[in-house]
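Justification of computing resources. Each target in the renewal requires a structure prediction run like the one illustrated here; the chain below, 147 residues long, is used simply to show the kind of job we budget for.
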Amino acid sequence: MKRWMGRDQKGMALVIALIMLLVLTLIGMSSISSTIFESKISGNDRFGAAAFYAAKGGVDIGLNRLPNISAYSGSIGSDETYRSGKLTPGNPQPLIYFGVMGRPGYDVTWEFARYQVNATGQSFGAVKEIEVQVSMGPYPAGTQYNN
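Resulting structure tokens:
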């Protein structure tokens, strides 16, 4: 007596439905995992941008203080802070004075003062640093206007 396997299909719909449910569950879990990962990336990007703008605020303050080259620090939000100096030392450092220089188009009776402003910004653990070199002038050569 031969029995044909395709004749008795009771329960086959249940098996197919369970397989489809498993596939849809895996797709849903993958989507949730991807969404969580993307939200972490965007949060880190937001904190990095806030740290960058805190450092930019520190550079702006340093530029406004020139020719004063003393160290400074401050806060611009709940966790956004800025300070003068590079990332490597943990404390504010003074701005750097490079001395005087000439410029094309000006004769030797004029000079420009050169400075370097480093500022570090921090926001919720993200840290960014900006370095700017600037020259101020022209000043009459040999005067004390640039110090």
